[in-house]
Amino acid sequence: MLRNWLKIAFINYKKNWLSTFINLFGLTLGLTGFMLILLHWNDEASYEQWNPQKKDIYFLQQYYKTEDWTNNNMSYQMTKTATDELPEIEDFVMFAYDNTEGLMKTNSGKSQYVKDGESVSESFFNFFPFKLKFGSYKDALSDYNKIALSDKLSQQLFGDDNPVGKELTLSDAKYIVTAVYTLPEGNSVVKPNYVVLSQTMKDDRENIKKGYQNWGNNSYQALVKIKPNSNIANVEKDIFEKVLIKKRYPKEQLQKENVTLEEMLTKYGPNEFYLTRLDKARLEAKSGFKGKADYKTIKILFGLSVLILILSAINFINLKTAQGSQRAKEVGVKKAIGSTKTQLIFQFLVEAMLICVFAYFLSLVLVELLLPSYNKFLDKEMAMNDWTIYSYSAIMTFLVVLFSGLIPAIYLSNFKPINTLKGNFSRSSHGVWLRNGILTLQLIISSFFIIGGIIIHQQVKYMMNKDLGFNGNQVITIYYSTKDLSYKKYERLKTELKKINGVEDVTFGEATPTTGGSSSNMDWRNKSVTAQHGAMDYNFLDFFDMKLVKGRNISPKYSSDTINTVLVNETFIKQMGWTADDALKNELKPGFDDKQYKIIGIVKDYNLWNVKGETPAVVFFHYFVTEWKRNNMYFMEVKLNKNDIDGTVSRIKNFWETKAEPGYPFNYSFVNKEFAKTFEKYQKQQTLFTILNIIVLTVALLGLFALSSLLIEQKLKDVAIKKTLGASEKSIVLDLTKKFLIISAIAVLISIPISYYFMNEWLKDFAYRIEMPWFPYVLSFVILLLLTFAVVSIKAYRATQVNLVKYLKYE
């Protein structure tokens, strides 16, 4: 029986070769897209899976309601107090930003500039138990002069020798090697070349011992280890109620300051805490732990790949049901000789399975061919070495077999033998509603892709052409080594760099586009705004062509400008609820100082980090204003002559490596190029959506062509009769295409509210976005009608050329 079914299947595939090709083509593309997106999803979800304690480790974040902002940093005071107060929290580890790179030297004379170190608290190896090669983790980080090395770095510095107990220097500080570890092979955001105790955390520890409070120094990322089976929601609630409220805002303090708890939470926050399990942090954390995957985009792309599969399955169903008249006599004969309905359903399911399984294997080949380009596009190193990719795609293939095979199978098996054996089945309306409904769904999906593609293109174009508020042409940012961050170094290098041919100007600005920075609360009366620090040199604003809206810039003419004056940006005064005139009359109390600062100017907003997010509140001041800033200047900006950029960079590099910082690499980047990287994510979204759009329209139009061909072939006798009665070719073509045009119009109208909802949700992610345009919806209507007419009318016109004698000789 099975052999007979296979013979019949291959005969039908050959007879309807166009439909077979379209089904195979659509399903292969759909499964290929599904596997590629699933590969991306699995790769992002695989981070930290190597860690045996991943289910007990949680990333701690805090939410500020006033700014609607989730901070991925935490204070040492908050984390330490939460660990001490809450029995569910067993331990914690904190990651600092100091001492994560530097020139490393051994006593034997070997030296190497090393990046990707970790500056942490003592419990690091309790959270990340890398495989130990030499030494012990017990006291590996018990003092500030101890260091642990990766086996790769140990090999580079000490060869095959055991380096435990040996000395080395890192940025001129002496260390003793206590352990050598092997990094895990799996994906991880924590893969340090070396590990040391954080020097910046030292002060926080000592302050806590002395009883000083430093709740607002959110300079670290924190992980906590929670006892198994703890209720995470309750732990989050307890951190807020038992730590923040009872310890940071105790009643005695509130009464002393004559403020309410609600006022303090509104002014300073935080208002909520989140705990995200380590192995889920990359995808699901509110704010990223050492980086965050674009989970929303991955889910969107995954959903779109499933839509393409559904579209391909729809083609399959439509074409199979449209071929019903060709299989009607076969079904009638089989039923007449005793075949059951179940046997017929199994036969047609086997036929569907053959196509789907063949498409599955073709998609595996296509994925292997496309994977190198896909890896390059995403800057990843994914491989088809995960059994879940094969199993999930096989399950999806099975579902497609059921979805696309069962409906036509049931439809065909329900034919009545008495009708089919009379030979008049082709004239019946059996299955018309099914075909029309499925075709409508197919065109709704196509319309959604057209509308979405146009809106995404418009949004990306808007961001690309938006006035960024600064000019970073020919500007490079040069980063210092960490051994000397004094302002004296900056001022010396500034003088020397200006002497180099091709250097037009030099400045420093903490709020330079694309660079990171620090922030703190800025208080005025009973109101507080969290603002980015903008420590800068006098010429910073002019250097980047940034505009003043009102007031004046800082100037060396005024001694107060290095003591207690600030500028603020437009966002800052909006958040304070001031007018420009109000701002220039007021003074601020910054969280990093005890004195009042007078506002002397307002800076026009500019994009600070990227084109998506809102411009944060920024407070600008001269770097000499506070000791903290003037002794933590780790980069500078240099403007180059546009006529000799490469030559000037080469001269600066030579100066840097021979005179400025001998032995250290020349670490620099172009401001405009770095900022352009923030566009890449959205340009890639645009590219992927365009590719998906082309695939969807290709699959849909090929399916429409095949379906219209089958349906029009069934009406060739009607066409012959109409031509005999004198109907024109134009009227026959319009009559044959009218139904398809009506279905297309209905599909677009249904897709409009669906497209509006999803695209509006997508646009909400952008602080600077286009207003929802109306023309994509109209354009989708016009495009889909024109494409439908073009595809169907080709076959309709060919139908008007029928041989009348052939179709009327039996009438």
Automatic annotation (TrEMBL):
Q: Which organism is it from?
A: Kaistella yananensis
Under InterPro entries, the record lists:
ABC3_permease_C, MacB_PCD, Macrolide_Exporter_MacB
* Residue ranges constituting the ABC3 transporter permease C-terminal domain according to the UniProt record: 304-416, 691-803
Q: Which domain of life is it from?
A: Bacteria
- Entry keywords, A to Z: Cell membrane, Membrane, Transmembrane, Transmembrane helix
The residue stretches assigned to a coiled coil in this entry are: none
Residue ranges crossing the lipid bilayer per the database entry: 21-41, 300-319, 344-367, 387-412, 433-456, 688-712, 740-759, 774-797
Protein's recorded name = ABC transporter permease
Q: Predominant location of this chain?
A: membrane
Q: Where in the cell is it found?
A: Cell membrane
What membrane topology term does the record carry? Multi-pass membrane protein
Residues in MacB-like periplasmic core domain copies: 20-239, 442-645
